[in-house]
Amino acid sequence: MLDMKRALVILNPAARGAPSIETLRDAINALEGWEPSLTETSASGDAIDMARDAAQRGIEAVVACGGDGTMNEVANGLAGSETAMATIRGGTANVWAKEIGVPKKLSKAVSVIATGDVRTMDLGRAGDRYFLLMAGVGFDASILQRVSSGLKRRFGAIAYALPSIGRAFGHRAVDANLVTDGAAASSPLFWLLLGNTRNYAGVLNLTHMAKADDGLLDFCLLEHGGLPRLAWLALWALFKRHQNRAGVVYQKIGTVEVRTPGLPVQIDGEYLGETPMTFSVAPGALKVIVPSRLASPLFGG
Q: Are residues 181 and 111 in the same domain?
C-alpha cells in the first residue's frame, strides 16, 4: 500500500467522458488519510505546468483525469521527478488506462491511488517532447492533422473514421532517410510507429512486444500503404504476426532520426509537428501508480 499523503488531481473538463468537477471532488475527498487537491486545465499545456509545479513542491502523486493528451502533459511535467502519476479515465480513448487496467468506475479508479503499486517506466522522446505511449510518423499523424479537438469531443472515436478512410487512399509512401541506432538507411515510409507501450488506439497491439521498462522503443515500419494493406496489417496484428509480413519492419531500437523533412508526427494521439525529428528513450523517467499486483507484460523488461 502506498504511503502517500498528498495528491493533486488535474481535471481536463474538455475531455470527452470526464466526470464533472463536483463528482470528482466528492470521489477524491473519500480518500481517508489523504490531502487531495483538485484543479482544472483551461488551455493546452496547463497540465504540464501544474504537474511540474506539484513535483517541485514534493507532492507525492499527481492524478491525471482526462484522455491520453492529458496523460501526456502530466507525464511531461513529472518526467525525472519522484512524483508518481495516477490515472482516472476520461477522453476519447485513454489507452494508458486500458493498458494498466484502471477501473472505469470512478470510485474504484480513485481507490487505486491509495491501494496501488508504484512502478518505474521509460518515456519516449520526440524532439524535446516526451511521450508515454507511442509516436507516429506519416499516415496516422496526417489523420490527426485533420481532426479538431471539437470533433473529438463531440463524436469521440467516430471523428477519426472518415479521415482515416480518406488518408488510406490519399496518403503516399515517401523515400525516407533514417538513422537507426547510428546506422543510416533509406526506406519507403508510409507509416512508422514507435511504441513505448503495446496498444494502439485502444484497438490493436501494433507494437505488441513492447515493454515500458526495457530502455527501448519498438519500431514498426509499414513501407507501403493503401486500404488493402492496412486491412491485412490489422488482421495479422490480431494474431500478433504482422511483424513477419512483407513490407513490415519490426525491431527494437534506442534512437531513430527521421531526416526527411515535412513528414507529419503525432505523439500519444496528438499532432506534434513535422520531421526532421529525432526519437529516443528516457529510461526510468516516470513513476506511475498501477493497480495492486498488476500482472502485465508491459513491465519486467
A: no
- Domain extent at residue 252: 129-281
Please identify which residue in the block is written with the cell numbers 527521421.
Answer: 258
Question: Domain tally for the chain?
Answer: 2
Nearest by Cα to 73 from 44, 38, 109, 102:
44
Residues 156 and 174: their CA atoms lie apart, in Å, by 30
At 7-64, the pLDDT tens digits run 999 999 998 889 999 999 999 998 877 899 999 999 999 999 999 999 999 999 999 9
- Output the nine-digit C-alpha cell for 252: 527494437
The predicted-structure confidence for 156-210, as pLDDT tens digits, reads as follows 555 555 566 566 556 789 999 999 999 999 999 999 999 999 999 888 999 999 9
